[in-house]
Specification:
The protein is an alpha/beta fold. It has seven helices and ten strands. It has helices at about 10-25, 40-50, 80-85, 110-120, 160-165, 185-190, 205-210; strands at about 1-5, 30-35, 60-65, 65-70, 100, 130, 155, 180, 190-195, 230-235. The strands form two sheets. It has a seven-stranded parallel β-sheet, sandwiched between helices. Strands 4-8-7 form a three-stranded antiparallel β-sheet. Helix 1 packs across helix 2. About 40% of the residues are buried.
Length: about 240
């Protein structure tokens, strides 16, 4: 596990974008696992800027997003379909057929989960998985618990996660209570993992991720078992390590 501490959010985002760009340049048909939330936004902005300067080409890349809220249509501004198009995909040259995001509106969640895992397998697996992290150590929407579901599955969001994500909604009551998420096993099968964190509210989670006991109560701690993990954080998120 390699930990890179950058001065601030902008420097962290630039460093993360350089790692993703390097992956795509070395392997143009890379399979990228992508994350949402506020943390990766700076990285996406940097990648868009690189694309506009003809420094990176996404025409052969494939992407798989980590998760999606249940019962939010792709047109809903709070859905992760909307997020990805609004913040990244609309500005680069990735073919629509190469974009994969879970269907939160499905009436057969079990089938959607099985098919998503099969799509990842048929694509050859994830070359580089980008992760954010919740204050409680969740990655994707894999919440702390006595057991973790290793495959793509539906999850009841923890109260702490609902509270944290309420800043994106008009009220806490509007935050969906369920989501579909890629499981821990699929994340850990990625050839390389890049985890990003910014701000003091992530400092405890980063400490547990880097040096805590490996436990399902802190899902991100399981990254200690992976041979190729890079963690890029700003100074505020690094204050406890």
């Amino acid at each position: 596990m390699r930990v890179i501490i950058e001065k601030d959010y902008k420097a962290m985002s630039k460093k993360a974008a350089l790692l993703v760009a390097s992956q795509v340049r070395l392997k143009p048909d890379s399979v990228l696992g992508l994350a949402t939330g506020s943390t990766p936004l700076g990285m996406y902005d940097e990648l868009i800027e690189m694309y506009n300067k003809d420094e990176i080409d996404f025409s052969e890349a494939k992407t798989f997003n980590l998760d999606e809220y249940c019962n939010l249509s792709p047109e809903n501004p709070q859905s992760y379909h909307y997020y990805m198009n609004d913040n990244f995909f609309s500005y680069i040259n990735i073919p629509e057929k190469n974009i994969n995001i879970l269907d939160g509106m499905t009436d057969d969640v079990k089938r959607e989960c099985i098919e998503y895992d099969m799509k990842i397998k048929r694509a050859g697996g994830i070359d580089l998985q980008v992760l954010g992290i919740g204050p409680n150590g969740h990655i994707g929407f894999n919440e702390p618990g006595e057991r973790l579901n290793v495959k793509t599955h539906q999850v009841d969001l923890a109260e702490e996660t609902i509270e944290a994500n309420s800043r994106f909604f008009d009220s806490k009551e509007e935050v969906p209570k369920k989501a579909i998420t890629v499981g821990i096993a699929t994340i850990l099968k990625a050839r390389r993992i890049l985890l990003l964190a910014s701000g003091k509210n992530k400092a405890h989670a980063i400490k547990e991720t880097v040096s805590g006991h490996v436990s399902t109560q802190v899902p991100s701690s399981l990254l200690q078992t992976h041979p190729e993990v890079t963690i890029i954080i700003d100074e505020a998120a690094a204050e406890l390590i």
